[in-house]
């Protein structure tokens, strides 16, 4: 576990906006050329209109010049005592933003639980560009 990334992510939890679920999530993503991006979850009273931390991080990176497909790692923390895994929507987005051998790191709030998984392991049957071009 990278303590520096964990501490930075943990500090970002207070920036999330989650008055409905009270589930705070922060994400960090790093490209293969070392660029770093953060995101937090933001809820909305029209529930489907909110955004998860992972997608906020990755989608927001594009406006800052990141290239889709260039991410080598994503880190996710929540205010849970256990590991909170990404939703399926975020996982699919991550398959498009990450390199094929990309890794996803999960932390709990206290830092005593940590897991690392490959994006291929998390999403073995990915929808890719080639799948929607006929």
UniProtKB/TrEMBL annotation:
GO terms, molecular function: cytidine deaminase activity
Occurrences of domain CMP/dCMP-type deaminase (ranges): 1-121
CDD domains referenced in this protein's UniProt entry, alphabetically: cytidine_deaminase (cd01283)
InterPro entries: CMP_dCMP_dom, Cyt/Deoxycyt_deaminase, Cytidine_deaminase-like
Pfam families in the cross-refs: dCMP_cyt_deam_1
Alphabetical keyword list: Hydrolase
Catalytic activity, EC: 3.5.4.5
UniProt keyword Ion transport present: no
Family: Belongs to the cytidine and deoxycytidylate deaminase family.
PANTHER family found in the cross-reference section: CYTIDINE DEAMINASE
Annotated protein name in UniProt: Cytidine deaminase
Native organism: Metamycoplasma faucium
